[in-house]
Every structure is written in C-alpha cells, then in structure tokens.
Amino acid sequence: MAGAGRGDGQGPAVGKLESQIYCIKYTLFCFNVVLWLFGVSIFALCLWICFEPGFNEWMRILELQKYFIGIYIILIASLGIMVVAFLGCGSALMENVVLLYGFIATQIALFVFGLVGACVVLDFSTYDSSIQPLIKDVILRLMNNPQHEGSREILRMVQEGIGCCGADGPMDFLNLNKPLPSECRDSVTGNAYFHGCVDELTWYLEGKTGWLAGIVLASCMICVVNAVMSLVLIQAVKKEEDEAIVYKN
C-alpha cells in the first residue's frame, strides 16, 4: 500500500503530493457514495415500475412488453453500480493501483451498460418513439374487432382509465363508420376526448420513466468522473512512490 511509512522525514515535494492524493481519494470516495445512492434509487424505481399493481397487467394486455427491455437492462446495471461503488471506495482509500485499474474498467462497462439501458427505455416510452406504432397497432386492432367481448372491454378500460379516444382521436371511429362510445366522452362535460390513446399512453409512460432515465444518465456522468479521477489518483500514487525512492537515495 502506497500510504505505508509516510511522515518519516520525506521531502516537501512528497508531502505536498501526499496532501493532493488525500484530497483526490476522499473526493473519489464521496463520488462513489453518491453513485451508490443513485444505484439504490434506480433499483427501487425499476422494481416500482415492474411490480406496480395493474401496470404490468396493462402492458401485457396491450402487448407492450418491449417497454420492459430497457427497464431490465437498467435494473441489472443498478445492481452493478451498488457493488462497484464499494470497490471504488475501497480501492481509493487503499490507493491500490491494481484495484483502481479494475475500478476504471468497471466504470467504463457501467457507463456503456447504463447508456444503452437509458436509450432503450427512452426509445420505448417517449413521444415519437418506437412504442407509438406498437400502441397504434394494438388500439386499431381492438377497434376493428368490436364483436369480440374481450377486445371491447380492453378498449373501454384503456379509454376510460387514461381519458383518451381511439388511436389518434375521435375521428378514428368516424373514419371506420363506428359510433363514438360513451367512454370516449368526459363524464363531466360530455365532450369527446381530444387526444388519442397513442399520445395519452406515451405521455403516461414518459411520466413513469422520465426520472429513471435522468438518474441513469447522471450515474453515467459520475462513472466518467470516477474513471478520470481514478486515473489521476493512479498517476499521483506512482509519482509519489517514485519521488519517495529518489528522496531516500
């Protein structure tokens, strides 16, 4: 361990470098604590989304399980974040060069993993994303199959629960020469809902995953900072060892 035997008559240059190392490693320690807290938050949010009563059932009925692909990726990444944060704290405090190199590698891996997960989540939960054509296909299929009681019930549940009408709006029913169902109307005003279920469902999903994607991207940024600071710490530790050897000689 590089910190062993300090303070035994070493020169001022080594002493100054030692104080810089002290500052870097405890800053890195604090960043890892924050990263661990982010990991816990991400893990909790993923579990909430996956096991929220009714939500999972809705996604299964509407055949939108692709939405969960990014959630599962992020869930795995959050477990990695929580474990690796401890490695970062230990390697920084010990000033162990080998562990620090390993920590840098894990930060790069978590950065890539988290970025991929965030991109997939956003691609299946935001406006003009890949989820909207999937929602539209399901809603139109339900509208075109009114004779099937299950289809009617699912469409009624979606339109009443979210406050929407058709895929893109009330005109969808008129274009299909179908009467406007009562669940398409506001129970207070009696007016038809302006927005279709595609937009309303997308905005609903955005609200659930917006914070999650934001925290994941913030964690990715911390991973980059941790990797850079670890590299700086490695160089400082090596320089301190070299200067200590020169001074003793």
UniProtKB/TrEMBL annotation:
Kindly list the residue ranges recorded as spanning the membrane: 26-51, 71-93, 99-122, 211-234
Disulfide connectivity?
164-197, 165-184
The protein's topology relative to the membrane is:
Multi-pass membrane protein
Identify the stretch annotated as signal peptide in this record. Answer: none
Q: What is the annotated localization of this protein?
A: Membrane
Keywords on record = Disulfide bond, Membrane, Transmembrane, Transmembrane helix
Per the record, the similarity remark reads:
Belongs to the tetraspanin (TM4SF) family.
Q: What is this protein called?
A: Tetraspanin
Task: State the organism named in the record.
Answer: Papilio xuthus (Asian swallowtail butterfly)
Species lineage, top-down? Eukaryota, Metazoa, Ecdysozoa, Arthropoda, Hexapoda
